[in-house]
Amino acid sequence: MPMTRKSAAVTVGAVALASVGVYAAVQDDDHDYAGVCVEETTQKRVADDQCDDHRTGGFHGGHGWYFVARGVAAPAVGSPVSGGSFTAPPRSQSWGTGFKADGGVVTRGGFSGHGFSVGG
Questions:
Q1: Exposed (0-12), middle (13-18) or buried (19+): which is 68, by Cβ within 10 Å?
Q2: pLDDT tens-digit map of 47-77
Q3: What is the pTM of this model?
Q4: SS3 50
Q5: How would residue 3 be classed by pLDDT, with cut points 50, 70 and 90?
Q6: Cα separation of 104 and 26, whole Å?
Q7: Distances in Å between the alpha carbon of 105 and those of 1, 23, 28, 72, 90?
């Protein structure tokens, strides 16, 4: 029995929706680095929303992203940063925001924010 236009549209729509779901899961859970927001003068982690207006390394308005590689402990909010870098990750690596406020080792998962690709 030939496929009708309606069933073809439903199939294409379902595939597209599934692809978006897979992409979103990769975006949120499979980053090479966690970006945590840091207050410039104290060098302590603050809530990520303090850095949400920029997506690059360096300080902007007294706050900046601090990048912690997978496998390294990220600080909790209110703790001094260590083990990472203020320099953006290497090209072709991704980083995500929304890492757990209580800190911990950066692994797959643990992100609730956005993901960013650093290179192409």
A1: buried
A2: 999 997 777 778 888 999 999 999 999 999 9
A3: 0.68
A4: helix
A5: low
A6: 20
A7: 54, 23, 16, 5, 20
Cα–Cα separations (whole angstroms), residue 54 to 23, 61, 74, 86, 94: 23, 10, 20, 14, 16
Residues 85 and 66: beta-carbon distance below 8 Å: yes
- Provide the token pair at 28: 């949120």
- Can you read off the two tokens belonging to residue 54? 């920029």
Which pair of tokens denotes residue 65?
A: 């992203």
- Tens digit of each residue's pLDDT (9 = 90 or more) over 72-118: 999 999 999 999 999 988 888 888 888 999 999 998 755 655 554 44
CA distance 11 to 73: 43
Q: What is the DSSP string of 11-45?
A: HHHHHHHHHHHHHHHHHHH--SEEEEEEETTTTEE
Task: Give CA–CA dist 109/91, Å, rounded.
Answer: 21
What does the alpha-carbon distance between residue 94 and residue 78 come to, in Å, rounded to a whole number?
25
Q: Give the pLDDT confidence score for residue 43 in this predicted structure.
A: 96
